[in-house]
Each structure stands twice: as structure tokens, then as C-alpha cells.
Amino acid sequence: MTSSSVSILADTAARSGRRPGRLTIGIAAAVAVAAAISVPLWFRGEFILFVATQAGVMMLVAIGLNFLTGYAGQVSLGHGALVGLGSYATALLMVDAHWPFWAAALAGMAVSTVAGLVMALPALRLSTWYFALVTLTFAQVVTDLLVEWRGLTRGFSGIVGIPAPTIGGRPLTPTEVYLTVAACVVLAFLAIRNLTRSRYGRGMVAARDNPLAASASGVSLLRIKLFAFAVSAALAGLAGAFYAVQKSVLTPEDFSADFSIFFLLIIVVGGLGRLWGPVVGTLIFFLLPELLGPLQSWRLLIYGVILLVLMVFAPHGLMGMPFWQRWRPRPRPAADTGIEATRSIRRLSLRVHDLHKHFGGVAALAGCALMAEAATTHALVGPNGSGKTTTLNVISGFIRSDRGSVTIGDTEVSRLAPHAVARLGVGRTFQTPKLLNDMTVLDNVRLGGFVSERATALEIALGLPRGHTDRREGSAAAMALLRFVGLAERANDLAGDLPHGQQRLVEIARAMAGRPSLLLLDEPAAGLSMDELDRLGALIEAIVGLGTTVLVVEHHLELIARISRSVTVLDRGKVLAAATPDEVFSHPEVERAYMGREGSGSFK
Ligand code: ADP
Ligand code: MG
After folding, report:
1. Which of 277, 544, 554, 583 has the smallest count of CB within 10 Å of its CB?
2. Is the predicted pLDDT of residue 212 greater than 50, yes or no?
């Protein structure tokens, strides 16, 4: 088949909406990868093998850095130093302590991981670019340490005579080392692929793009970032171990600042946050100049031109070009098990007592209190600025109150962080929807399942059954919830493409994916049509039917009267009245304060 007929076929497939299936792509990728790995073996040349092994080592680092920078959004300019630490640790243990390579490599990974976590600590406080500068400084400190700590590192003269890895006392040949590195690259790629497609990947992207949505879904921003660092640093350490035995000589200059920047270039050129980005980026930036041997003196110029052309024609990197869209497998149709998947909801009541909150001189809450029975709807109403959103923020842990308590079931939650409150079974929506606009609707809902999925990161990375179960059940539950809110047919659209009203519904579905005992809704009816308003009422009643307690902030009196068991009226942070809807709305003071004023049947 000629290449033009292939591209015509691809065009037709793209136009008719048919894309290659998962299995086809999987097999094609496996064959291509096996073929690519075998290429350096055909030549039987030492140099080619050396270059190919080194490319594999670089790929390991790039895959790890892409996980951290491309997915978790943390820019590290210190990865070269992490490779250096792994390298030195492995080499010293082998040369001075006569450890076998495999044990030394594990120790090297551990050293890099710990160093990565130390480097990560400022990430919790600083914004991206300040943090990047901190990592740069860290790299400088490490290089200085490698020079100055002569007793251990032998300073500028470096470590020489690092032996080859052995198996059963026999040293591996360069071909065997190459194949070992290649196998590690394939395994690392698969592990990272599994992780990025799991709740960890969604959690990382959410923490990067919309921290509020992440926290509300039960993602600990601190822990997910540390996790990304640990994985990324461990891969850098593993690469370092191979780097040491491959070069057999290490000096501090190997791990200068350019080395770190080189990895960033690789992943940017390949495509940040693209699975294949680091692989393609390494091939371009590493192999190309090596193959252009005779043009060695033109090397920098060629780099520069490639980079410029890329930035103009492929600002999202090579793997971020629209061309690849058609090679993405079509989304797997998610099974729909029905809403029973959400059955395991615990029925819990909500008690809010004497909340006070000042913002500077403004008293947003001055003794706010309310009580919602388990599996009922309680409405919180009041004019704008009366403290309704602040109350929801205090309950869900986003704002710490000055005084007062929040009790869900028997648990006092008012001192907990938002993700911890979410884990206890509190879901919420925001007054302006906080969705991940570049994720599909289905993935947005699946983010909400973060707290109810059970597989550990290790199980997911290794592709063990529990990870698959979570994935299958998670998308089935998300699909059922989308059907529940009436948006099943939009599952594979980007959330940002949905109109505002539908985004609110997606947010409700996301909150429900965590099987919450308590659901907090902040003005869910704002901007809905009459039709959608009716649907919303039915939806909230259905949610209560599942056993969830709903606290809803709303202005629409008809809706409140229809769905809520009890109502609390707030005014300037104080409770004006609390009773059944009928009683509250005929309360003279409430009527005097609001009804008479507008006569529109609305609290706005
Ligand atoms: P509502 O949701 O009832 O309209 P809010 O709870 O949003 O009211 O706000 C109550 C009061 O607290 C308002 O006066 C508002 O300006 C103030 N407020 C709310 N959040 C903050 C904040 N983060 N910083 C400063 N003032 C705030
Ligand atoms: Mg509000």
C-alpha cells in the first residue's frame, strides 16, 4: 500500500467519525516499539549501541519529568541533579561498598526520591515559576556538593571504574544493558500511562488547573504533588543508575544546569502532558544530532531552528499537534449500571452551630446556625451578601470559621481541610461552576469518584486487577450519574463546551460521584430555564431519595417550597427565621424584610 492511499484511508476514517479501535492501536504500537528497540542491534556497532542506551536513559528521565511537569504542572529545573544523585549513589555503593548493581540502583532510586521530596517541599507554598527557580538553586547546591564533598565524591576527578551490572556473577554485555534499559523504558511508559489514566492522573490535572475543584473532590493538593515528585524523582534515580554503569566514569560536570534544561526542552518539544511526548522529544533531541555526525559543528544551529519551527507550527509540541487527534482510540463506551451504583450512601444529619466569620471589618457570619435532618433537603436563603456562600465554605472546609461548630453525623468537621471533609462524604457545587474545561464531561464526573475508588497507585501502575475494576466501575457509575442528570449523550464532549446550565448539572453529577452523605448546592438554579428548573427539582428529590442530605442555597421560592423540608433565612450573617417553608414564608418579619420589598417571589 502506498503512503498516499494510507493517508486517504485515514482521512475517510476521520471524516466518517470512525477511528481505529483500541486493540488495533495497541498491537500496532507494540510491533512498532519492538521494531524500534531492535534497530540498534542490527548494526552491531558499539557506538550505536552506546547512543541508543543513552537515549533510553534520557527517555526514562523525560517520562518522569513529563509526569511531573506535563500532568502535575510543576516545572522542575533540577531534574539533572536528581539524576546525578541517583548516579553517584549507585556508583559509590558499587565501587566503594561492592554492592551488586541491582541493589545499588534501588538505593540510588531511594536517594533521588528522598531528594526529590525535599526539593518539592517549597512547591506547596510557591507559584510555578518561583518554584522553578528553587529547583534550579537545588540543582546548583547538588553540583557544588558533588565537587566539595571530596571525601565521598572525589571532587572534580570523579568516580572511575564503575563495573557493569552482573547477573549470577557474569557481567552483562553492552547489548544486554541496552535491552535492560529498553525494558525499563517500556515498563516506565506503561506505568505512567496507567497512572495518568487513573484517578491519580485526573487528580493531578485538577490540582494543576482547578485546585478548588480538586479539593472539593477529595484530592489533597499537597499529597498529589508530593506523589508526582516521588514518582518523577524515582525515575530520575533509576536513569541515574544506568547512566553510571553505562559511562563507567562520573564527574560533577555531567550534571550541570544545562543537563536539567535539556530534559525540559525534550518534553516541551515532544508535547507537555502527552504520553508519547517524552519518547518523541528524546528521539529528536538526542538521536538526531548524533546521526547528523558530519554536521556536528552545525548542531546548535540545527537545535535552534528545530525549536523555532516547532514553536511556530506546533506550540503544544510534536505530540500536541492536531494531526494525532485521529489516532486517538475512540472513547470506550462506558457501561451504565444504573444509579444503584451510588447505593452505599450513609445517611447523616448536619448541624451548624453559632458560626462567626469576619473578613477584615466585615462580619460575614455572626451566629449562623442550621440543622438538616438526614436524607432531607434544607434550604438556606437570604439576600445577597448575607453569608450563604460563606456558610457552605465553612461547612466544606474551604474557610475556617472564627467560632462555632459544624457536625456531620457525629463528626465535628470545622477544623478539617477541604479534601478531608470531602473524604468524610461531603460533596459540593460552586456558585460559578468549577469544571475542568479541557477534560471530557465523563472525566469531570470521574474526578468526583476520587474518594470512592480503592486501588493504590502501585496497583494501578502495575496494571493489577483492582485498578481495572476501579476504572470499569468508575466510568459506569459516572455514566449512570450523567444519565441521572440528563447529560449522558454529552459524556465525551469537553466540559468547557457545555452551556452554563448544563455545567451546573455536570458539577452536581461530579459531587454525586463521591457518594456524598451531604451535598451542598450553591444557587443551582441560577440561569436555568423553567424547564430545566423543573428537572433540577426532580433531580434534587431523587438525590435525597438515595439517602443524601442536601443543603441548598437558592433564590427561587417555588423550588424551595417544593423540595425542602426546612428552611433557614439568613440576614447579615444571623438567622432571621428557621422553620418549614410554609411557616418561614408567612413569617411577618421575613415577609416584611423581603416579600414586600420586591413582590417578585424571589429573594434576590
Ligand atoms: P451570599 O452568598 O449570601 O451572597 P457571601 O457569603 O458570599 O454572601 O458573602 C457574605 C459577606 O462576606 C459579603 O459581604 C462578602 O463581601 C463577604 N465575603 C465573602 N467572602 C469573602 C472573602 N473571601 N473575603 C472578604 N470578604 C468576603
Ligand atoms: Mg453566594
Report:
1. 583
2. yes
